[in-house]
From TrEMBL:
Source organism (scientific name): Priestia megaterium (strain ATCC 12872 / QMB1551)
Protein name: Transcriptional activator
Domain HTH merR-type positions: 1-71
GO MF entries: DNA binding; DNA-binding transcription factor activity
InterPro entries named in the record: DNA-bd_dom_put_sf (IPR009061), MerR-type_HTH_dom (IPR000551), MerR_fam (IPR047057), TipA-like_antibiotic-bd (IPR036244), TipAS_dom (IPR012925)
UniProt keyword Hydrolase, yes or no: no
Swiss-Prot/TrEMBL keywords: Activator, DNA-binding, Transcription, Transcription regulation
Gene3D superfamilies in the record: 1.10.1660.10, Antibiotic binding domain of TipA-like multidrug resistance regulators (1.10.490.50)
Pfam families membership: MerR_1, TipAS
Source taxonomy: Bacteria, Bacillati, Bacillota, Bacilli, Bacillales
């Protein structure tokens, strides 16, 4: 049974305008149009819309979602399994943040003691515990340049960078069962390399490769990165090494 755009919007709980936008950018084109010019969405269209909304909930930008679902190798069942695992991991991170918030409320009331580490548990990469190690590996100048650049960002820019960071890591986590040298993995790692260079100073290929090695050599990195998906740190290390060596040739 085909459904008109308003029916789909009411069924799913999104706006007609959103569906029109998805059509205009080629993300979700209805399979048919009525003689009166109404968009008609097929059951297959609804299946794809479900996938799009799952990816969107996980923080994927629309452009990236389009690339994923139009890839000839895209498999709906595999995608659903990955999305389920990613949502479970996201829920785990949110649960940890809720625990931290509840403890902080009790701390503010004077009911419990709470150290600084406990107050930031589950809050990701905003607080960087790895600066000392970074200074040892790449020197003070590189780290100071990165810190200066970050401090120059407005609050809106910082939020945008944080969102993009999460999106990149989430996407990489969805690929971690592939070969690190696969086209998909290398494309995602190239995005990570570009993101670092655009926002945190200039990374040489050697420094990028060294960063990947730190992901598995320093358990603090490994623990934080693997919150997005078990084995992600190892996958990124190998993919970053392949990327750096390929670009040197």
């Amino acid at each position: 049974m085909n459904r008109k755009v308003k029916e789909v919007a009411d069924l799913v709980g999104i706006s007609v305008r959103t569906l029109h936008h998805y059509d205009e950018i080629g993300l979700l084109k209805p399979d048919a149009v009525s003689e009166s010019g109404y968009r008609l969405y097929s059951p297959a269209n609804l299946d794809m819309l479900q996938q799009i909304l799952f990816f969107k909930e996980l923080g994927f930008p629309l452009k990236q979602i389009h690339e994923i679902i139009t890839d000839p190798t895209f498999n709906r069942t595999e995608a659903l399994i990955l999305q389920k695992n990613m949502l479970i991991e996201k829920r785990s991170r949110l649960d940890q943040m809720i625990v931290t918030i509840n403890k902080t409320i009790q701390y503010e009331k004077g009911a419990i003691e709470m150290n600084e580490k406990e107050r930031f548990k589950g809050l990701g990469f905003s607080h960087n515990p790895y600066e000392e190690e970074a200074r040892k590996r790449w020197g003070n100048q590189r780290v100071d340049e990165a810190n200066e650049k970050v401090q120059s960002f407005s609050q809106e820019e910082q939020q945008s960078i944080s969102n993009e960071w999460e999106s990149i890591y989430t996407h990489l986590a969805s690929l971690r069962d592939l070969s690190p040298s696969s086209t998909e993995a290398q494309k995602a790692i190239a995005t990570w390399y570009q993101f670092l260079n655009e926002n945190f100073g200039t990374y040489s290929l050697e420094a990028f490769k060294g960063l990947g090695e730190m992901y598995v050599q320093d358990e603090r990195f490994t623990t934080n990165i693997d919150r997005y998906g078990k084995g992600l740190a190892k996958f990124m290390n190998e993919a970053m090494s392949v990327f750096a060596e390929a670009k040197k040739q």
